[in-house]
Every structure is written in structure tokens, then in C-alpha cells.
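Aim 2 progress update. The chain analyzed this quarter is reproduced below.
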Amino acid sequence: MALLPRRFLCFVLAQHFIAATACQEADYGAMIRHYCLKDFQHSMEGIGQRLWCDWDETVGTFGELTNCTALIAEKLDCYWPNRLVDEFFVAVHRQYFRNCSPSGRALHDPPNGVLCPFIVLPVLVTLLMTALVVWRSKRSEGIV
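Predicted C-alpha cells:
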């Protein structure tokens, strides 16, 4: 019977110890917005909005943002990744990467030197084949 109160006391003390050393989510959220997001915004402005979807241009900045959130989590004894980090990165993606293709590469038309032959060549072949069919059909009418 003496074991039950002792276990209960250990459980109560452990709860207070965990609560005292647990991650302070409000502080963590504020710190990642203040330190990490501000640096990320500054870097993204330097890159320019035209290149936001170019992964080669943004991978370094995005990596720094990820490392920043992990370092702050470590300093505040928070688990990483966690719910706040997930929400934070979803918000970053909505603001900066919502118009990007799933492959991460900026889509654009190929140069005219490549595009024009792919358009003109099939049109010319179609016209040539049509003319050939019409010419052969008129030529064979006289032969019975």
C-alpha cells in the first residue's frame, strides 16, 4: 500500500518537472517569425520574385530557414519538427511558392530557334502529304 502513494508522488512530481522544462510554443513561434522569417524575407527579396520558383536559386535560402527553425527549437528544448514548424512552413509556401510548378522548376517557353521547327515542320509535312494525295488521286483517274 505504501508503494501506491510513492508512485503517485513520483507521477505528480514528474508532471511538474515536464511542465517546467517543456517547450514554450508561444516563445518558439515568436522567435522563428522574428529571427528566421525576417532573414528569409530579406534573402527572398534579394533573389527577386521572378526567381522564387527556381529551386537552384532558393535552395540555399530555404535550407538556412530550415536550419534556423531547428536551432531555435534546440535552444528552447522543443521537438523539431513539430506542429508550429509545420504551420510555419505551410505559411511560407503559401506566400512564396504558391505559383510554382510541382517539380520546383520555373516553366517557360523554349527559345524560338527550338520552338519554330517543332511547329513549322509538322505543318509543312501535313501540307506536303495532302498535296501528294490529291496529285496521286488526280493522276490515277485516267488509268483504268
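DSSP finds five helices and no strands in the chain. Residues 7-20 have pLDDT under 50 and may be disordered. These observations will guide the mutagenesis experiments scheduled for the next reporting period.
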